[in-house]
Amino acid sequence: MPHIWIECSRNVAAEPEARALKQAVYAAALETGIFPVGGIRLRFQVIEDYIVGDGDPTNGFVHIVLRIGHGRDLDTRRKAADHVFEKVVALLTPLRDRAPLAVAFEMQEMSAELNYKFNNLHEHIERRRNAA
Question: Coiled coil where (predicted)?
């Protein structure tokens, strides 16, 4: 973990800040120090069909959901969420200053009982690191 979903409206997708968002969120997640590299999954999707606010076509959005495994205390989760969101805000502020933009971010904790995994990424990443 984490699994990260980033969506943005078509009208902001080509902006330099939006193009840099995937790497910035990935780096911020690693910087928290609580997520293993092999657990990170990040998806970035441009949404073609949307309505934002009053429907003005210049209104844009970025929506980020960061889902994490169960077991970290609230303070740890809050510090990680604050760190990632601060990086998002720093990156997107120039875009927000140029155009109407709604940014939403949420960290969610997955169920401890109903969370299944079938994964060998950790072993492969460790082998690649040791071979380098």
Answer: none
Order of strands across the sheet with 101-109?
41-47, 3-9, 60-68, 101-109
pLDDT digits over 80-120, tens only?
A: 999 999 999 999 999 999 999 999 999 999 988 887 878 88
What is the pTM assigned to this prediction?
A: 0.89
Which of 2, 36, 57, 100 is catalytic? The answer is 2
Q: How far is CA 24 from CA 58, 85, 126, in A?
A: 24, 10, 23
Distance, in Å, from the CA atom of 41 to the CA atom of 5, rounded to the nearest integer, reads: 8
CATH match for 3-131 among 3.30.429.10, 3.40.50.980, 3.60.15.10, 3.40.50.1820 = 3.30.429.10
Nearest to 3 by CA among 68, 82, 97: 68
The closest alpha carbon to 29, from 69, 80, 76, belongs to 80
Q: Is there a catalytic annotation at residue 36?
A: no
